[in-house]
Amino acid sequence: MQGFLDLKLKPWLRNLLTRCLAIILSLIVSLIGGSAGAGKLIIIASMILSFELPFALVPLLKFTSCKTKMGSHVNSIWITALTWIIRLLIMGINIYYIVTSFIKLLLHSHMKLVAVIFCGILGFAGIAIYLASIAYLVFRK
After folding, report:
1. What is the spatial distance between Cα 92 and Cα 102, in angstroms, rounded to a whole number?
2. Residues near 30 by beta carbon (within 8 Å), at least 6 away in sequence
3. Cα gap 68→41, rounded to integer Å
């Protein structure tokens, strides 16, 4: 981000500012919400990270498996197969968690039936777009 925003900061100052920002926001949530708020913050952060994981993992696996980009350092066929199997397991667990959490939210919400149906349509359309974008990353050259 430093190059993208054209910011010129010393590394120690940049590290200090970003760590302080993260700690201050977490401290505010903990002070307002107590230990339950901190626990919810950890769960929300974990869900967001699991949602973003395929967009970092798939290009990394494709890059390290490409002979033209990696040259002699390319992954062997066995390492490539193993990492893609592990990727499928991790992403399958994450997608299962996202879908079941969304279904649980819809079933146990106190919204009217029309709102539940509308949120379900929008939510599952979003999940379909998410899966399509992951498939695009996997199958693009």
Report:
1. 15
2. 37, 38, 41
3. 42
Residue 128 has pLDDT above 80, yes or no: yes
130: nearest Cα among 68, 65, 42, 51: 51
Indicate if the pLDDT at residue 5 is higher than 70.
Answer: no
Distance from C-alpha of 27 to C-alpha of 112, rounded to nearest angstrom: 36
User: In angstroms, what CA-CA distances link 97 with 2, 50, 67, 78, 104?
Assistant: 34, 9, 34, 29, 10
Q: Does position 3 have pLDDT exceeding 90, yes or no?
A: no
Rama region for 6: left / alpha / beta (φ>0; ψ in -120 to 50; rest): left
Rg over CA atoms, the chain: 20
Interatomic CA distance for residues 104 and 102, integer angstroms: 5
Rounded-to-10 torsion of CA 14, 16, 22, 23: 180
pTM of structure: 0.63
Taking a C-beta distance cutoff of 8 angstroms, is the pair 127, 98 a contact?
yes
Question: How many C-beta atoms surround the C-beta of residue 7 within 10 A?
Answer: 9
